[in-house]
Structures are given as structure tokens and as C-alpha cells.
Amino acid sequence: MSNDPLIIFDTTLRDGEQSPGASMTLEEKVRIAKMLEQLRVDVIEAGFPVASPGDFNAVKAVADVIKDSSICGLSRALDKDIEAAGEALKNAVAPRIHTFIATSPIHMREKLNMQPDDVVENAIRAVKKARQYTDDVEFSAEDAGRSEPEFLFRIVEAAINAGATTINIPDTVGYTMPHQFGDLIRQLIEQVPNSDKAIFSTHCHNDLGLAVGNSLAGVLNGARQVECTINGLGERAGNAALEEIVMAVRTRQDVFPCDTRIDTTHIVPTSRMLSRITGFPVQPNKAIVGKNAFAHESGIHQDGVLKSRETYEIMRAQDVGWSDNQIVLGKHSGRNAVKTRLKELGFEFESEVALNSAFKRFKALADKKHEVFDEDLLVIVSQTSEKEKKAIYSLVFSEVCSETGETPEAHVTIEVEGKEMNAKATGGGPVDAVFKAIESVVNSNTELKLYSVNNITSGTDSQGEVTVQLEHDGKIVYGHGAHTDIVIASAKAYIDALNKQASVNDRSHPQHNSI
Ligand code: KIV
Ligand code: ZN
């Protein structure tokens, strides 16, 4: 069996970020991009540059620093989109422009209001225009899963003739079954006369829980690029999960005639980092990266695993980045120990200033907590202080009185754009009182949609990790806070969400705006 390269195209920063509430700041995107580079992802889709100045700058910032992965910018089949992508990718070592247009009857009729001939013409024009900026051009037939195969053959042939080097076949609405999606890829490769001039790619959404199954069916039928995201983040039910694709192909080399160049030991740290940054928790039973993915609860399984690991384990936890070395540091540990352990977890500091600031937070935590675990360290580095983020709001002080039989009362001091403001409020419980006190200063007009607390590690001295979801005018933001005191963690999470809400910019959505 030949071992073709299977290209991993990660779209966490573009399709993943389209997931409501998952928006990331420029610094957060650069941090994730660096993790993806260490993971040895082949192509990083960094965003949709024309969407807003913020998106443009983020793609540019990623393109400026990443050297070992190609950087891709998305564009509709419009000159202004392609020009913005070309400009944002100017400094990339290996730039790719990804241009797309919808090809299903329903999308062409209802969204584009265009005739099929015009769609083909636009695709050709867009690919040619993109080729003026780079030789690496990807063309996607949006909603290919519901497109007429004959029309797909025609537009794909035209796109390749115009210069597309990758042809992406999205199951945009997660509608196809694995055997259908596999057949579609096979037919395209067989029927399109110039198919040997391009790499065929999958891009499957998870609406029926089949994103990974469909992508793998595509690979078995000749696709040599898979588009995917860390933790399966993405619109609606998400995308194909990178970790599942990579580990399925790596574990079943008896089935797949190809393999990726991914360094799988960085999978878990990257997953955790993304979860911390976006506030989207990873479900415990999630394959590969869930807390229970390698836990053996039942007595029979434990017995089997102790006798021979392979009785119940098909992969090794260490190979995907789970570490046995859980207790790492304590209050006597120095800066170098913190830096070294974080490096082992895949995180590198950009500057001495960033290391010093993280070390300060480490010391503060180690004072309260006996043992600092890997999870604690990742929280420390994923939550840069409000000041570093140049946030509008930051928590200066909070105090809550909560006694049996008495109504809890909270006092808070919040810095609002450099000015300290005090407030107090009562509430049904201590967290409610703190949120009301914060609101009496901020008056955000948001609705609290979700509040959840998880312990980051075990033990009553663990940090509590609080996630809140706020909604305002249909826009959703998540906030995240961690502290050994869960009331303070709650206040931090609420303020984090308010800051995100204040910075949510108006950007256009690539697939909701017709051309
Ligand atoms: O799901 C989709 O069709 C997309 C395209 C823009 C590739 O994300
Ligand atoms: Zn998509």
C-alpha cells in the first residue's frame, strides 16, 4: 500500500470561529495558530479578511509569524474579497487563497439568484484573479453535497483549467451519508478529465454526526486533503474533528493508503488551549481529547488493561498528548520550571514580559493551592490578565457576605476604562449578588443565558472554572474565569464576557451574504 501524504487543512480560526460565541481576539488567534504550527498542520485557514478590519488584521498577523504551515484566507468569488485576502497574506511564506461559490440548485436560486452558467463564469474569474496573488489556489463548491453531480463535474473542470490546485467538496449542511459522500469524491476524480491536476479535499459539517465518517469516506475514495477543526468546533453542530481524523488514519494504517505529518503529541494541549480561549468545554466522553477518553472505569476493563493495555486500548494516551506527569509544580518552583513545563505542553512565551506576568499569576495560585497541575498552568497562560488584554472592564475588588438566614450582599470595585467605580447589591445567592453589583456599574442590557462551574482539577482546593454566556441583540458571547474562590471566578467570567461583548465587531459572514 502506498503511503500518500494526507493534507490537514485546519479551519478552526475561520469556520470554527463562525460558531456563535467562539470569536477570538487577534492575540488569541495568533496563539492558536502557533499551536497549530507545532501540531504540524499543513494549512491554517486564518480567517475571512474582507469580513472586517479585525479579521483582516488577524489573518495578516498569523501570516506574518507562521513559517511552517501554509496560511489561507477565505474569499467569496468577488474581486474585493480576493484582493483583501491577497493583501492580508502578503507576508506569508506559503500563502493560499480559498475562493468559493455555491453550486446547489437551492443556493444558486435562493441565495445567489444566479443562473448556473453565471456561477461557472464567476468561479473561473475568481480562480484566475486569485492566481494573480499566489500559485496555491483552492476552489470550493459550496453545498456540493446537495449539488447536481453533472454540474459539479463541469464547474470543477473549469476551476482546474482556470488554475485551482485544490478542489474542496463541502457538505455544507451535513446532509450526505458516508457512502454517498465517498461516491461523490470517487466520481469527481473519475469523471473530471483534468482531475489529476488538483488535490481533492473534504469539508464536512456535523449536523447528523457524520462529519468525520464522511471525511474518512472521502479519503478512502481519493481525497488527499481534509478540512477540519480542533474539537470539531464550527457552525451549528460543527466540523470534522481534526483529532479524530488524524487518529483514525494513524491508528488504521491497515485501511488508509495515506497518512498525515501531524505531531499527535500536541493534540491534547491544543484542544485544551482552544477550549480555554473560546470557553467551549470539551465533553468528557469526546473521542481522543475528552477527560474520559482513556479512563477505564469498569472493573473488567481495568483488570484487562492492567494485564495487557491492548485488551481495551487502541491508542496510547501519551501519543495524543495526555501526560502521566500530572502534579508538576508548587510554590517553591521557579520561573524556569514553569517555562519548561509549559514548553512540554506545547506553549512558548513570546517575550520575557509575558513569562514574568504568567509567573506572577502562577505564584499567586501556588500560594493558595498546594499543587499546581498541568490544567492550572494552561489556565494561567490562556487567561492573560485584563490589563494585558487592554480590556474595557476589569475587576479590582470583590467581597461577598453570605450568612445562613441572611440575604447575600456583594461589594465590587470595577475599573472602567481606567476609572474605578464601586457598587453593591444583594442577590438570591452570592454569585447573583456579584453579577447584580457588576451590572449596576455596567448596565450592559445583556441576558445571562448560561452559567456553569467546573473544577479544573480534583480536590476542594481546585480552581473553579466558570463559564457564562451573555446575549445582546442576538449576539452571543462567552466569558471565562478561573480562581480557587468560585465567586471571584464567576465575577471574572462575567467581566470577561462583558469585555468580549464590547469588542464584538460587525463583520460579514462569508456564507450568509450573497454575492
Ligand atoms: O461549509 C462550507 O461550505 C464552507 C465553505 C466556505 C468552504 O465553509
Ligand atoms: Zn464550513
Automatic annotation (TrEMBL):
Pathway(s) of this molecule: Amino-acid biosynthesis; L-leucine biosynthesis; L-leucine from 3-methyl-2-oxobutanoate: step 1/4
One GO location term (cellular component): cytosol
Enzyme Commission code: 2.3.3.13
Coiled-coil blocks: none
Sequence positions that bind Mn(2+): D15, H203, H205, N239
Key words of the record: Acyltransferase, Amino-acid biosynthesis, Branched-chain amino acid biosynthesis, Cytoplasm, Leucine biosynthesis, Manganese, Metal-binding, Transferase
Gene Ontology biological process terms in this record: L-leucine biosynthetic process
InterPro entries (UniProt xref): 2-IPM_HCS-like, 2-isopropylmalate_synth_dimer, AIPM/Hcit_synth_CS, Aldolase_TIM, LeuA/HCS_post-cat, LeuA_allosteric_dom_sf, LeuA_bact_synth, PYR_CT
Reaction(s) the record says it catalyses: 3-methyl-2-oxobutanoate + acetyl-CoA + H2O = (2S)-2-isopropylmalate + CoA + H(+)
Domain Pyruvate carboxyltransferase positions: 6-268
Region of interest: Regulatory domain: 394-515
GO molecular function terms listed in the Swiss-Prot or TrEMBL record: 2-isopropylmalate synthase activity; acetyl-CoA C-acetyltransferase activity; manganese ion binding
Cofactor section: Mn(2+)
Subunit field text: Homodimer.
Similarity annotation: Belongs to the alpha-IPM synthase/homocitrate synthase family. LeuA type 1 subfamily.
Purpose: Catalyzes the condensation of the acetyl group of acetyl-CoA with 3-methyl-2-oxobutanoate (2-ketoisovalerate) to form 3-carboxy-3-hydroxy-4-methylpentanoate (2-isopropylmalate).
Protein name: 2-isopropylmalate synthase
Species annotation: uncultured Thiotrichaceae bacterium
Lineage: Bacteria, Pseudomonadati, Pseudomonadota, Gammaproteobacteria, Thiotrichales
Gene: leuA
